[in-house]
Amino acid sequence: MGETTGQTVAQTAVRAAVRTVLGDVPGDALGVCDAHDHLFFRSALLPGQELADVAAADAELRAFHGLGGRTVVQWTPYGLGRTAGELVGLSRATGVHLVAATGLHQAHHYAPGAVEAVLDGLAELFVDELTRGIGGTGPRAGLIKVAGGFHGLDAHARRTMAAAAHAHHRTGAPIAVHLELGTAALDVLDLLCDEHGVAPQHVILGHLNRSPDSVVHQQAARAGAFLAFDGPSRANHAMDWRLPDALAALVDAGYADQLLLGGDTTTAAARSVNGGPGMPYLLRRLRPRLELAVGADVVHRILTANPARALATVWRAD
What we know:
By secondary structure, the chain is an alpha/beta fold. The chain has one domain: Metal-dependent hydrolases (TIM Barrel, Alpha-Beta Barrel), CATH 3.20.20.140. The protein is built from 11 helices and 12 strands. Helix 2 runs parallel beside helix 3 (84-94). The longest helix has 17 residues, at 155-171. The chain starts with 8 loop residues before the first helix and ends with a strand. Belongs to the metallo-dependent hydrolases superfamily. Phosphotriesterase family. Keywords: Hydrolase, Metal-binding.
């Protein structure tokens, strides 16, 4: 997991790689990947449940590593407590590759006034964090995280996604999308791909486990996007207990190579060190359950080869 040094701009610009907090690595170096999770997260919607404890984050990563996990993709975007300065040390200490995010969440996750302060320069902010580093001195982000709304896209979503598309075209970075309760997947693809020219293989649609609509799942897969099923331990979501069947349907339809899995730990109570499922749940409980549904080889591909392709890109120098 050595940090890249001494590379010329031309070398960096032509090599397909995953951008981790320790530098760019080839996709096949990721190993078993939690494709959507949070080590640090702070939302105005979740007061008192902040993920802010560095020691707890270290413990989660070590537990994940102990089960064979080798990469965690943190989808925490700008302004929500990413604690980017701790990510390099955590990655080195635990042996887990970490991919950080730039981007912007739904407006109501932020304190009043926080979003308005950056909207005018949003695309430039994303590009800077992807190419120069988070906050100017932190590690570089490896993807852009944005968010849709419930069954639609409001003005905020359209503005942030337009900025994400602009930053993607300038850098090559993949775009990861929070789908509110798993909805509006096709609206997102219409906006990013049809209106803004982002190739669908550079789009990751998150939270599809929260909307058990197999027709939409297959439409999104047919378009060419990556489909992320994340947060599997949340029993209040209708898709949780249907997840094996949902994945089996997509595998049978020929879309096994477009599926991703993640844990999406968003509160302190959900950490394994606090008695919740945490990051280990993905490998300790969900993996064997899915192996019964689609086979161990397919699950291994979903956890390794698929995130390697979803996250690797030919990075362009800005």
